[in-house]
Backbone:
């Protein structure tokens, strides 16, 4: 057990616990706060994976934008949130079975894979993933088309969201 | 006395190694000591900020301010703290206890987190993250979260309205803020705050990006929720907004967090645009760098206070109009123009570079002012027109007794 | 050092929890939260594969960035839909949103 492994295990337990609370808890605002905790744990895992940019982007996008939007939507639909009927539908045992089966199946498939217990290759001193990522996203040989398509999609989503939620008077 | 901080660090190295500790453990202990020292120092400055705030607002309002306790009323903030500590601690009925108690901690802790990436002197940097600017934006988002949690958990309508306004304000002002912050990133070719400060060795970025500096300052004030953007806690509309139910030291944490946030954002703007710790002699005497840094930060802090006590609060529709119709397009124009000129001016003398960018910024500012002037003229005409309501009655009504 | 298996097991568990949330919750916003958990699990896998299998090519991180963009767009449109439906039908329960059954 190295220190990194202990850090990973603590983070993983907290993150998975928070994720479980997201789907279990009845109070939706609490679910959103647990979701934020989950995102934070995932951000720590990105740091463990040497992806500092993604870790910070995770905090900015998921916690700063997505979670806050969700809390906003929950507060706007407050009347519904206050009725304390069942928060799960009739088929929840089946959902549990399917989720457990998926988890088991994934582990079963992974365990037969040769690289399952592989260790991380050492990052060179001169390796700069951030610069590499930046170049890759705008380089014509690499990902400039997906990058531009993502920008167009974000614009479309922006306009679409405004149109859908527009209150016609 | 070249560099006491490095000297202390080396002395600690020797001392801990003398106790027979592992090198990895020494790094951890030194990091913890550094965090503790920085957080304590910053919070001590925070107590002093209470005094600065009260003195400066008094001067703006032609008063003297606290002057009874100690010289110039310097002991006054300690009296304030004691008063807050002995007040009754109230938790409102129906409040969400855990979230309610967590919110003030979030509000102050997120501000302290920002100090991790601000370089105070050439040798005093908490941690040199290579995505420092993005880190600042992310931690700012966490601060917003603290306010939303406070507003929701208080179980109070005014607090909830305050939380709603916070979301509308902070999420929308993040857009021009991030775009304006991209300008120094573009000029320094790095997102790390330390690299940005290092890139300002020949000229400060305020010379080549004055509009971006102003945009960052305005959006910072909006992020802070200070006047004229203090709709979040507008006393005359929603009593006190998100912290209406908080008493005693919990309110104190919000108050301290707000003051410290103002100083922190001033420090960040000073690092990005005013050269941070740079100044004559700072390279050889790092302690001088701390003095320069805090001088610049406190100057900007004073500017923020100046704005706060001079301008009236704006309405929420004006706030959103200002953001989406003015700040965001302007920041986009500035970013694109800066990027294009930066690309066109590769390999020229630094003074040519500075002059061309400065001229471009002045042209943008002039065009913006012209557009604003014509808009204002139209607006004035619209307001001056007779309104459909409250016209005088067509014929005078004869009175009963005549 | 941490072997790759840790991250894969973690991501699989997170994905399963998200799937349960999507399948079992009634509230549309809670379903969106489940979708976010699943997207995050996928991201962890992408970055872990980048770090352990192909650290010289940046593909994993680039795709993670794309997933970020997709997630942001999805939440914006999804929440706009939820609020719009709430205005018209006064419900956010996914089972009650059966406009096609008119």
Residues:
């Amino acid at each position: 057990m190295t220190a990194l492994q202990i850090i990973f295990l603590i983070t993983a337990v907290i993150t998975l616990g928070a994720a479980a609370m997201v789907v279990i808890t009845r109070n939706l605002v609490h679910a959103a706060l647990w979701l934020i905790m989950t995102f934070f744990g995932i951000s720590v895992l990105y740091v463990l994976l040497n992806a500092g940019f993604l870790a910070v982007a995770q905090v900015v996008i998921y916690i700063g934008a997505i979670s806050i939007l969700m809390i906003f939507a929950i507060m706007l639909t407050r009347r519904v949130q206050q009725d304390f009927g069942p928060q799960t539908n009739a088929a929840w045992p089946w959902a549990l079975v399917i989720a457990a089966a998926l988890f088991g199946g994934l582990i079963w498939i992974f365990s037969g894979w040769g690289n399952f217990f592989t260790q991380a290759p050492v990052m060179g001193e001169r390796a700069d993933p951030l610069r590499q990522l930046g170049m890759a996203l705008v380089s014509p040989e690499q990902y400039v088309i997906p990058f531009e398509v993502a920008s167009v999609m974000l614009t479309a989503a922006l306009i679409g969201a405004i149109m859908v939620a527009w209150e016609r008077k | 006395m070249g560099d006491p901080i490095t000297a202390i660090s080396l002395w600690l190295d020797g001392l801990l190694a003398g106790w027979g500790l592992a090198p990895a453990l020494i790094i951890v202990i030194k990091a913890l000591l550094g965090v503790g020292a920085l957080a304590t120092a910053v919070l001590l400055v925070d107590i002093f900020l209470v005094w600065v705030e009260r003195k400066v607002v008094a001067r703006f309002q032609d008063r003297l301010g606290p002057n009874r306790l100690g010289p110039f009323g310097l002991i006054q903030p300690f009296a304030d703290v004691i008063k807050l500590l002995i007040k009754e601690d109230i938790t409102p009925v129906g409040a969400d206890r855990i979230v309610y108690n967590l919110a003030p901690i979030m509000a102050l802790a997120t501000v302290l987190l920002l100090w991790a990436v601000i370089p105070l002197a050439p040798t005093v940097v908490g941690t040199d993250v290579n995505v420092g600017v993005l880190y600042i934006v992310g931690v700012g988002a966490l601060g917003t979260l603290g306010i939303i949690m406070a507003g929701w958990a208080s179980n109070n309508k005014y607090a909830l309205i305050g939380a709603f306004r916070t979301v509308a304000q902070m999420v929308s002002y993040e857009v021009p803020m991030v775009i304006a912050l991209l300008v120094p990133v573009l000029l320094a070719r790095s997102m790390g705050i330390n690299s940005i400060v290092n890139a300002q060795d020949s000229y400060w970025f305020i010379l080549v990006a004055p509009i971006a500096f102003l945009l960052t300052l305005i959006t910072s004030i909006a992020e802070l929720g200070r006047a004229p953007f203090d709709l979040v806690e507008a006393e005359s509309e929603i009593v006190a907004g998100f912290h209406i139910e908080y008493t005693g030291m919990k309110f104190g944490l919000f108050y301290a967090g707000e003051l410290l946030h103002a100083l922190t954002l001033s420090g960040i703007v000073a690092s990005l645009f005013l050269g941070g710790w740079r100044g004559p002699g700072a390279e050889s005497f790092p302690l001088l760098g701390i003095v320069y840094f805090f001088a610049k930060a406190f100057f900007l802090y004073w500017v923020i206070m100046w704005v706060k006590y001079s301008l009236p609060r704006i309405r929420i529709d004006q706030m959103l109009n200002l953001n989406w119709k003015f700040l965001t397009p302007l920041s986009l124009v500035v970013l694109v123009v800066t990027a294009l000129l930066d690309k066109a001016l590769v390999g020229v003398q630094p003074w040519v570079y500075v002059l061309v960018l400065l001229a471009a910024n002045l042209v943008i500012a002039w065009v913006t002012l012209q557009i604003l002037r014509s808009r204002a003229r139209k607006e004035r005409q619209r307001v001056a027109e007779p309104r459909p309501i409250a016209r005088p009655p067509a014929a005078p009504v004869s009175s009963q007794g005549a | 050092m941490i072997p790759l298996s840790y991250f894969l097991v973690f991501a699989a568990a997170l994905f399963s929890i998200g799937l349960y949330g999507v399948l079992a919750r009634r509230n549309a916003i809670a379903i969106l939260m489940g979708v976010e958990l699943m997207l995050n699990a996928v991201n962890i896998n992408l970055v872990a594969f980048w770090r352990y299998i192909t650290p010289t090519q940046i593909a994993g991180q680039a795709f993670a960035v794309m997933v970020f963009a997709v997630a942001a767009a999805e939440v914006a449109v999804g929440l706009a839909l939820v609020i719009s439906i709430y205005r018209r039908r006064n419900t956010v329960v996914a089972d009650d949103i059966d406009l096609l059954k008119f």
In short: The helical segments of chain A are 3-24, 28-48, 52-76, 78-82, 92-111, 129-138, 144-165.
